[in-house]
Amino acid sequence: MTHLPIFLDITNSWSLVVGGGSVAARKVEALLAGGGKVRVISKSFSTDFEMFANKERVSLIHKNFHISDLENIQLVISATGRGALDRKVYKAATKSGILVNVVDKIELCTFIMPAIVDRSPVKIAISSSGTAPILSRALRARLETFIPGGLGQIAHLATKWRQRVKETFPALNDRRRFWEAIIDGPAGNLALAGRLHESEILLNENLTKINSKSNKTSLGEVYLVGAGPGDPDLLTFRALRLMQQADVVLHDRLVSDKILNLVRRDAERIFVGKKAGEHTLPQKDISKLLSELAEKGLRTLRLKGGDPFMFGRGGEEIEELSRRRIPFQVVPGVTSANGCATYAGIPLTHRDHAQACVFVTGHTKDGVLDLNWPVLVQPHQTVCIYMGLNALDQLMTEFVKHGADETTPAAIIASGTLENQRVIIGALNNLAKKSKVNEIESPAMIIVGSVVNLHKKLQWFNAKNQLIASSPMAIDAMQISKENS
Q1: How many structural domains does the chain have?
Q2: How many CB atoms lie within 10 A of CB 289?
Q3: Are residues 226 and 190 in the same domain?
Q4: Cα–chain-centroid distance for residue 130?
Q5: CATH of the domain at 359
Q6: pLDDT of 341-384, one tens digit each?
Q7: Which domain holds residue 160?
Q8: Nearest-CA neighbor of 222 among 240, 249, 202?
Q9: What residues are annotated to the active site?
Q10: Cα distance between residue 416 and residue 342, in whole Å
Q11: Same domain flag for 344 and 425
Q12: What pTM was estimated for this model as a whole?
């Protein structure tokens, strides 16, 4: 280890920045974020410094650097880009025993500015010891995606309750186990979600039970998480975090294997269906099972394809949880209509085509499509049909029967966002036939409206190669191979 990682308190202390360009301005921002006061010395200043014009903790001084400028300074950053001046600043600072950093010159630094992930009061500093700053920034970008934005709330919670927990658990190991259970449990999740008051109530309940020597098992929590249409890259940060915390996961067939592989490896997995006409578990039993698992103290993940509240029956599941006073949280997912349409290059709204978008389910009840056809057959709108493949012929016929032009563009997007995605383009009068010829299978999204005509021009995703060239010739060739009719 070539550098000792430390965190320096610069609150209300003066730092000196030498330089008036954009790099110097970024250093001033960093010092201010750390609570310090900054003097900046330069003969001239770029427009980047206009943001500091009225800040009380910044003093802009138009002059050349002199050794006397180091008086009452805690640390120095030189960002002039001028070799002789940078060396002069370095020598003066080291002679005065002041920490100094010369930007991009590791040999002229007594300290290094790390890349920072800020979840105040929690901060994570990343350094390559000055050898590869780009690598540090890349690592920071990755960490930003995995570390919850509300992590600082847990730190505030721990600070507030530290003494009470210490009194309850005199032994260090007992305190450590308690805090691990809080951070990874419902109380921690509430704090991460910004619901600090509710988190404190739950924490207090846990301490009260311990003090009363109650042996009752603490309640677990249910995570109702939208897995999106299939591509793991479309998962939210919160979804990934909860998937890694769950003790048991209930999933349906629309959740891809790639997404399931992101669930904690030792979590129990329970397959609960569902397919048209084939339910491994009836909905009522799924809702009951979620409650029973949570009542055993398990962190229970209900992982659903798309979005839980978009034809996902998520509302029914949390109604039962609410009735039984079981903690839960809902994480939205990219709904299949948005994901599939985007990956097919079909914008759901477009100024020249559609000013409205309607979402419907194509499930039949006793063989009847009970849809509000007068609302669906309107000009300048897009209709997205979930779970309609089995009734596709009937759907297309009903559109025409209720006044839609039979040549209205329509599309099927099968296995949308995945490497086996297929897009079939047609019209109301031939889409069902094309579906049969191409042997399209669920899951599939159906889109009706003139926006479908934009597919040929706007498609960007090639299921085989992930991205396609923007060349119209390449797009035309792929279009022919996909339609296959």
Answers
A1: 4
A2: 18
A3: no
A4: 30
A5: 3.30.950.10
A6: 999 999 999 999 999 999 999 987 767 788 999 999 999 999 99
A7: 151-211
A8: 249
A9: 252, 274
A10: 9
A11: yes
A12: 0.64
